[in-house]
Amino acid sequence: MPDLDIDLLRAFVAVADAGSFTGAADMVGRSQSAVSQKIRRLEDLIGYSVFDRTSRSLSLTGAGGQLLVGARRLLDLNDDIVRSLQAPRTAGRLRVGICEDFVPLQLSRLLARFMRLHPAVHLDVNTSLTHDLLQEFDDGDLDLVIATRQSSDRGRVIWREPMVWFAASDFRFDLKRPLPLVMLRPPCSYRELMFTTLDTARQDWVTACTVSSLMGVQAAVAGGLGITLLGRSFVQDGMQVLKVPDDWPPLPMTEIIVLGDDNAEKTLVQPLLQFLVEGMQVPAAV
Q1: Going by DSSP bridges, is the β-strand pair 156-168/253-259 parallel, antiparallel, or unpaired?
Q2: CB burial class (10 A; 0-12, 13-18, 19+) of residue 186?
Q3: Which of 11, 73, 110, 221 is the most exposed place for a label (fewest CB within 10 A)?
Q4: Element (DSSP H or E) covering residue 211
Q5: Residue 52: partners with Cβ closer than 8 Å, 6 or more residues away
Q6: Dist. CA 264–CA 245, nearest whole Å
């Protein structure tokens, strides 16, 4: 059996994630022609085409989709081995609060991988809404918080992503009728931004559903109850990003901050933050 080349697999996954050879070239720091050559070498190695390419589109073939699942696992394993050899040995206990906005599709997988790399580190992880986590941090119940930015004077920004309006794939976006909104209970910055945006656009709306978690928002939207406004990473299969009128106010970026990294044990905090930030840049495995 031929041995799969990690370098070729990394280029392949980059193309699949970026949706183009140009985008993949930026991700891996190589020229577009170099990435194309790697894909050809990979196809020669496995004996199958991995992409259907036209002048306007790029999509995975059946073999490419099958390879992508295994390629992600091999890259994870390769990177974990290298990271474990390079990382200093750390041990201790860290109480961490992580908001639900943070890599919602990957957090469990990333934390499990981190624990395999650092078995002597004990993490007490609390996932909740930002408002609750900030209160626990202020009360001294958490050492480190990764949360949505609420004000400009707290925390260090570690990640940004665009906000979008989205709904179920079969939702009919009719601006002539009040828009049904799916929202979190107050206090919530997403909720307030929805109100402000629609009021500025003079668009009528109604409350379709109020829930207590971001997973609840996703479930309600997927079920067709209404539309919502969240970070782009919350859009899943079976959902659509809505194209809103040009005269609606532009949406800001959602920002994730870290609090406590200047006071908590740095030998524990630094490897955790580095690992999670790197993980945010990789789409969830299919």
Answers
A1: antiparallel
A2: exposed
A3: 73
A4: strand 205-211
A5: 58, 59, 60, 61
A6: 46
Residue/partner pairs of 69-78 with CB below 8 Å, 24 or more apart: 69/285, 69/286, 71/4, 71/9, 71/12, 71/13, 72/13, 72/285, 72/286, 73/285, 74/4, 74/6, 74/9, 75/6, 75/9, 75/10, 75/13, 76/113, 78/6
In angstroms, the Cα distances linking 283 to 118, 181, 222, 234 are 23, 27, 20, 12
User: What pTM value is reported for the model?
Assistant: 0.58
Taking 70 as the threshold, does the pLDDT of residue 285 lie above it? no
Cα(142)–Cα(272) distance, integer angstroms: 15
Instruction: Report in angstroms the alpha-carbon separations of 141 from 63, 96, 116, 177, 260.
Output: 49, 9, 25, 46, 12
pLDDT digits (tens, 9 = 90+) for 4-43: 999 999 999 989 888 888 888 887 888 889 999 999 999 9
